[in-house]
Amino acid sequence: MQELNIFLVTVGGLTLVLSLIAGLMQNKAYLPSEPMAAVALGILIGPAGMGFARLTTWGAPLPIIEQAARLTVGLAVMAAALRLPRGYFQNHARSMSVVLLPGMIGMWLVSSGLVYVLLSVPFTVAFLIGAIITPTDPVLAGTIVMGHTAQRSIPAPIRNLLTGESGANDGLAYPFVFLPILLFEHVPERAFLNWIVETLLWEVGAAVVIGAAAGALAGWIEQVSHEYHYLEESSLLSVTVALTFTVLGGVKLVGSNGILAAFAAGLLFNRLSNAGDEADEQKVQETVLRLFTFPIFVIFGIVLPVDQWIALGWAGVVLPAGVLLVRRLPMVGVFRTSVPAISDDYDALFAGWFGPIGIAALFYATVAHRIIGEEIIWSAATLVVTSSILVHGVTATLFTKLYGRIVDPNRIQTPDDDRQSSLDEH
């Protein structure tokens, strides 16, 4: 109980302070990002620091992290869906298809190749770790594309591109992660059959259908209730949070992919609900997400496997550096001509650099570790996640402001920008 009170005081105090100075932290390049501050607090109060908090007193650490990460990512992808313009995926079908199919496959292969060469692990383990660190994290991406600094410096098409990608590819990373897991558990013929039937058709396809149906139903009911004045303001502001938890839990109970379903539900709810109500719900969703984000980063700081990182030797330095430099930038360079939102080299560099790896990777790492039991999965994934939190946190404000000075001012916050980029696709 004493450790719980310490955790409440530290996390609550951190959330209070960072919330009061959020604008200052987003505007000053020399200040750490909020995720960096939360991880640092976890290190400070954890076994590596003052030793006030040890997650082992609450139970096995990884199951706690898995469930906390699942809830946080679910809230984050719903927030991303609500943040997008209505009909974004329909209007940008070509861009999203390129980014989410060959783009993700490219990042997966590059990351897996680096892991295989540098860590000298079997192919299957390398492909599993590569899949875990493939998706762009919606929590960290949200800290980059949100706030006054982002709105003043990043053109709307780039913000929406990063938001849409980070929201969708967390759920779509599921089949990439589970293909090597199934190869661990079964002979190749059985593994590929299970992957097609169970993973692709049910855990991906059915998740999209179920989530979209739930979001559409909730959006339609909300619109009707708005027209007949059945909604109270207090109940209205809990709709999307309740929808997130309902979809996450319900879809998991039927054995499908709750994260992908939550994003699909958010897209359909966004499309069908009353515009004014949806704007209020988005603010509440972002607020609740914020309350979940700080604790998971603090918990992560408490359990950092520093000894395992040290055991990796020089590969522990080269691997995260290689992943951050070549996992995403070349992919954006190759496919930029198929993404109208990326109109010049500066757009490509910005969008290519800011593909952070975070809570979604932690979620998949805990799942893979639970099923496979290989320690290298956890140590390699957490090393890359920590490096991304540090490097992208340090560069976020600096690069965003620099990008804002270089980019054409007429593109920033121009309402027709996003509409024009969608027209360019047709």
Automatic annotation (TrEMBL):
<dbReference type="InterPro" id="IPR006153">
    <property type="entry name" value="Cation/H_exchanger_TM"/>
</dbReference>
<feature type="domain" description="Cation/H+ exchanger transmembrane">
    <location>
        <begin position="17"/>
        <end position="399"/>
    </location>
</feature>
<feature type="transmembrane region" description="Helical">
    <location>
        <begin position="288"/>
        <end position="304"/>
    </location>
</feature>
<keyword id="KW-1133">Transmembrane helix</keyword>
<dbReference type="GO" id="GO:0015385">
    <property type="term" value="F:sodium:proton antiporter activity"/>
</dbReference>
<feature type="transmembrane region" description="Helical">
    <location>
        <begin position="376"/>
        <end position="399"/>
    </location>
</feature>
<feature type="transmembrane region" description="Helical">
    <location>
        <begin position="241"/>
        <end position="268"/>
    </location>
</feature>
<keyword id="KW-0472">Membrane</keyword>
<dbReference type="GO" id="GO:0120029">
    <property type="term" value="P:proton export across plasma membrane"/>
</dbReference>
<feature type="transmembrane region" description="Helical">
    <location>
        <begin position="310"/>
        <end position="326"/>
    </location>
</feature>
<protein>
    <submittedName>
        <fullName>Sodium:proton exchanger</fullName>
    </submittedName>
</protein>
<dbReference type="InterPro" id="IPR004712">
    <property type="entry name" value="Na+/H+_antiporter_fungi"/>
</dbReference>
<keyword id="KW-0812">Transmembrane</keyword>
<dbReference type="GO" id="GO:0042391">
    <property type="term" value="P:regulation of membrane potential"/>
</dbReference>
<dbReference type="GO" id="GO:0036376">
    <property type="term" value="P:sodium ion export across plasma membrane"/>
</dbReference>
<feature type="transmembrane region" description="Helical">
    <location>
        <begin position="6"/>
        <end position="25"/>
    </location>
</feature>
<dbReference type="Pfam" id="PF00999">
    <property type="entry name" value="Na_H_Exchanger"/>
</dbReference>
<feature type="transmembrane region" description="Helical">
    <location>
        <begin position="67"/>
        <end position="84"/>
    </location>
</feature>
<feature type="transmembrane region" description="Helical">
    <location>
        <begin position="105"/>
        <end position="133"/>
    </location>
</feature>
<dbReference type="GO" id="GO:0005886">
    <property type="term" value="C:plasma membrane"/>
</dbReference>
<feature type="transmembrane region" description="Helical">
    <location>
        <begin position="37"/>
        <end position="55"/>
    </location>
</feature>
<feature type="transmembrane region" description="Helical">
    <location>
        <begin position="346"/>
        <end position="364"/>
    </location>
</feature>
<feature type="transmembrane region" description="Helical">
    <location>
        <begin position="200"/>
        <end position="221"/>
    </location>
</feature>
